[in-house]
Specification:
The chain has about 325 residues and is of the alpha+beta class. The chain has 8 helices and 18 strands.
């Protein structure tokens, strides 16, 4: 496999790039370089911003100069072209689109980014389908197993504006989940800090810890099924695996969760057709990044998840305003 090694490069941050995280900037700049390699460059201080080291979360300012060291690229490594079913799924899964913003219904099982173990992620597939698009960047992320609303910015200034909204709490995120157990009452609020465990212990694992970052999730019961609660989850913070860890923390893990869930229950749910995580990003509400008008986008619950609900005996009425089909209120 032939390799080519680039020389040291220097990039000055443009005005429209201000506010981007350095890790996301490098991922876009160094196409074909595994994300693990990019984070290693940052961790070792090989990437410099105005002469200084930079953490992956550092946000760039206009005029700063980024020094990028020589990076070996494999000439033969190219992102895999999206399959015909994936192409069709992404094309029909557009929930909202204008000149600034695209909202997709992300399929379960598709990573949002490619990496060392994933040759093709959603954003790479989308860029492949739209080769003439000058700019397509993820605004936020969803777990690989989670389906539903995912925002993609079409301009750097739009990305920056949406990131500001996310940091300031201007974006409301609503999820639908099937949770183990029929918990009492209509509301269940979980306020528990979350901490990532070292990667060497278990990759991408999170737990509740007093040393963790603030995290708050509000669950609302929508329907009770035999041994389960179909619920809406609203998150006031966007920590990794937040809904899944909070649900398990209070004894009601999300159905189909093979990382934090109940293995016996998950095995039993195969009889009603559940073969994935029952967690769906149902709705996004935000101010449009250019017009300021309030925008609400909803992703319908997929047919396989609807069938799982239908096969579980009902123990209570579904709230009219929150149909499991995902229709807007």
């Amino acid at each position: 496999m032939a390799e080519v090694r680039n020389a040291v490069r220097h990039h000055r941050v443009a005005a429209e790039e201000e506010g981007q995280r350095i890790d996301n900037y490098l991922i876009r700049l160094l196409k074909g370089v595994p994300r693990s390699r990019i984070y290693r460059l940052l961790r070792k201080g090989e990437v410099r911003v105005d002469g200084g080291r930079a953490r992956p979360t550092r946000r760039l300012r206009a005029g700063e100069v980024i020094r990028v060291p020589p990076v070996a690229l494999a000439e033969t490594v190219q992102p895999r072209a999206p399959s015909e079913p994936l192409t069709r799924r992404l094309s029909t899964g557009i929930l909202y689109e204008d000149d600034a913003l695209l909202v997709l219904d992300k399929p379960s099982g598709l990573a949002v980014h490619g990496g060392s173990s994933v040759r093709l992620g959603l954003i790479e597939a989308l860029r492949s389908l739209r080769p003439d698009a000058p700019y397509l960047e993820l605004v936020h992320r969803l777990d690989r197993e989670t389906s539903g609303c995912l925002m993609v910015a079409k301009r750097a200034l739009v990305l920056r504006a949406l990131h500001t909204q996310l940091r300031d709490g201007g974006v409301e995120k609503s999820y639908h989940a099937l949770m183990a157990g029929e918990w009492r009452g209509d509301k269940l609020t979980v306020d528990a800090p979350l901490e990532r465990l070292p990667v060497s212990y278990r990759d991408r694992q999170v737990h509740v810890s007093p040393r963790g970052r603030t995290a708050r999730t509000e669950f609302t019961a929508l329907q009770r099924r035999a041994g389960y609660t179909f619920a809406e989850a609203r998150i006031e913070t966007g920590r990794m695996h937040q809904i899944r860890v909070h649900a398990t923390h209070v004894g009601h893990p999300v159905a189909g969760d093979d990382r934090y869930g109940d293995r016996d229950r998950n095995a039993g749910l195969r009889s009603v057709g559940l073969r994935r995580l029952f967690l769906h990003a149902h709705r996004l509400e935000l101010a449009h990044p250019e017009t300021g008008e309030r925008l609400s986008v909803t992703a319908p619950l997929s047919e396989d998840l609807r069938q799982v609900l239908e096969r579980l005996p009902a123990h209570g009425p579904l709230r009219e305003a929150h149909s499991p089909t995902g229709e807007s209120e």
